[in-house]
UniProtKB/TrEMBL annotation:
Transmembrane segments: none annotated. The lineage of its organism: Bacteria, Pseudomonadati, Bacteroidota, Cytophagia, Cytophagales. GO terms for molecular function: hydrolase activity, acting on ester bonds. Gene3D superfamilies: SGNH hydrolase. It comes from the Bacteria. It holds the Pfam family DUF4886. Residues 40-183 form the DUF4886 domain. InterPro entries: DUF4886, SGNH_hydro_sf. This is DUF4886 domain-containing protein.
């Protein structure tokens, strides 16, 4: 016997199903009540450390309880993370299988239940799509076997600064030629991998490029500084830089880091993560790291919100 439902009831059911699907996809606002604790686990390297540096402060100020777990190794690629995991599965007593402060990835992932787990490529290999597979898939399957309810997402890393002396690998023996080239190719590789895995992307790399490529806000090398003969303790003007850039070490040696994020870059990355994770606008947040000028901080909030909004469309 078939039961006939009124047309109005079918419409209400359809609306409910559509809204439920939308919320579960993460494309709407936060997927959980604001009072629920979000447990996020990062499988990465120094770039994930940079990008999430201020996430705890932002989450606390926004009223979003947060727990962060980490499996991070300097410069670690998808391949290396997977190699360590496979070594542990083959022999739990193999030290190569427990590189995260003498713990394995399985042990760390098994410490409670995680809601969202991130993976990423190391920056040097990020423009080379051939370095993502099969390792991204292997890590994805491994993570889901341990935490089947967790959402796995890709953290899209950023390109090196415009005055870097080299950029990431595009293919074996071939390298990106500029900041834009590295961003475009790494973005393509991340999104191709995300499509293959059926996962979302945290668009930190896009946010970095949005600032770097902006004529009004992007970093430009100081034309008045003598880079060939720098004199301690003077530094070039590096206004609006998102990367560490030029610096003097504690022993008064001249240093340059065009790869890692400085305080402004870490703040931007954390704003993107906050907006992505909680579906919440960062505009109401007042926390700003002390070295970041207020006017730049306001612009970074706008960029973070716009970048995440564009990815959701």
């Amino acid at each position: 016997m078939h039961v006939l439902f009124p047309k109005r009831l079918w419409v209400l059911v359809l609306i409910f199903v559509t809204q439920l699907s939308y919320a579960q996809s993460g494309q709407g606002t936060s997927r959980r009540a604001q009072t629920d604790t979000l447990r996020v686990f990062l499988i990465g390297n120094s770039f994930s450390q940079n990008a999430a540096r201020y996430l705890p402060q932002l989450a606390a100020q926004g009223g979003h309880p947060l727990v962060i777990g980490r499996a991070e190794l300097g410069g670690c690629s998808l391949e290396r993370h997977w190699t360590h995991a496979a070594a542990f599965e083959a022999n739990p007593n193999d030290p190569n299988g427990s590189p995260y402060k003498d713990k394995s990835l399985r042990q760390l992932l098994s410490e409670g239940t995680w809601d969202l787990i991130t993976i990423q490529q190391n920056s040097m290999n990020s423009p080379d799509p051939g370095t993502y597979q099969p390792y991204a898939r292997q890590l994805y399957d491994y993570v889901k076997a341990i935490q089947p309810q967790a959402e796995v997402v890709l953290h899209q890393t950023w390109a090196y600064r415009s005055d870097a002396d080299g950029y990431g690998q595009v293919s074996p023996g071939t390298f990106a030629q500029s900041e834009r080239d590295m961003w475009e190719k790494s973005r393509a590789a991340y999104h191709a991998t995300a499509q293959n895995l059926g996962v979302r992307v945290i668009p930190v790399g896009d946010a970095f490029w949005a600032v770097s490529s902006d004529p009004a806000w992007g970093y430009r090398q100081d034309p008045n500084y003598d880079f060939k003969a720098p004199k301690y303790p003077s530094l070039p003007n590096q206004a609006n830089s998102l990367h560490v850039g030029y610096r003097w070490t504690n022993d008064q040696k001249w240093g340059f880091d065009s790869h890692h994020a400085n305080e402004a870059g870490c703040y931007l990355g954390s704003l993107v993560w906050y907006t992505f994770l909680f579906g919440d606008s960062p505009q109401k947040l007042t926390f700003v790291p002390e070295p970041v000028p207020a006017v730049l901080a306001a612009q970074l909030k706008k960029v973070a919100e716009q970048t995440v909004s564009q990815v959701r469309k």
